[in-house]
Amino acid sequence: MKMKRTIIILLAALLSFGTGFAKDMSVVYIDMQYILKNLPQYEQAQEQLTMLSKRWQKEIEAAQQEARVMATNYQTEQIFLSESMRTEREQEIVKKEQEVLELKRKYFGQEGELYKKREALIIPIQDDIYTAIQDLANEKKIDIVKDRSADPSLIYMSSKLDISDQVLHKLGAK
């Protein structure tokens, strides 16, 4: 009985300490989507990535079309070809299809050109945003900054807790 009482008192003390500590913490929110949308350099980076992606996709589609034409031609001419010529044509078609796969991997794969370009263009912008957030948090003695656009459990937030415009101002955006 005495042991249960001690545990209950200890838990009550811990809970009251925890809530007192939480009351002293300041939490604010940002909307990363809003911030990115209002940064001209982010929009320019996105446009560059879109243009590159479209250009590379056209190159891949042209190579795919070439492989399709080769396969269609082979189908129609196959009966007129010798065994060695059929084998040679089949190998050319396979080689062309492998080139298409290689182009896809080169441009759009995990470590592809699009990934590298996105990293080169977007990461410096993200670093600037995080530096601005950190500077604001230090200036205003903010303990926690959360991204409301990434928090699906956030149902309501007072607009006075949103510092997105202050972050944009710190970044020099209008």
Protein architecture, described:
The protein is rod-shaped, with a radius of gyration of 29 Å. It has one domain (25-171): Skp domain (Protein Binding, DinI Protein, Chain A, 2-Layer Sandwich). It is mainly alpha-helical and 174 residues long. 73% of the residues lie in helices and 5% in strands. The N and C termini lie far apart (66 Å). The longest helix is centred in the middle third of the chain and has 38 residues, at 40-77. The model has no long low-confidence stretch (mean pLDDT 85). The protein has a two-stranded parallel ribbon with strand order 1-2. The chain is built from 6 helices and 2 strands.
Can I get a quick summary?
The chain has one domain (25-171): Protein Binding, DinI Protein, Chain A (2-Layer Sandwich), CATH 3.30.910.
Keywords:
174 residues, mainly alpha, Protein Binding, DinI Protein, Chain A, two-stranded parallel sheet, 6 helices, rod-shaped
CATH class: Alpha Beta
What is the CA-based Rg, rounded?
A: 29 Å
Structural class: mainly alpha
What name is given to the CATH topology? Protein Binding, DinI Protein, Chain A
What series of H and E elements makes up the topology? HEHHHHEH
Summarize model confidence as the mean pLDDT.
85
The main β sheet shows up as: 2 strands, parallel
Q: What is the name of the CATH architecture? A: 2-Layer Sandwich
Total number of β-strand segments? 2
Distance separating the two termini: 66 Å
* Continuous helix count: 6
Helical proportion, percent range: over 70%
> What's the structural domain tally?
1
Spans of 5+ residues with little confidence (pLDDT < 50)?
none
> Order of strands side by side in the largest beta sheet?
1-2
State the CATH superfamily name: Skp domain
Beta-strand content: under 5%
Shape: rod-shaped
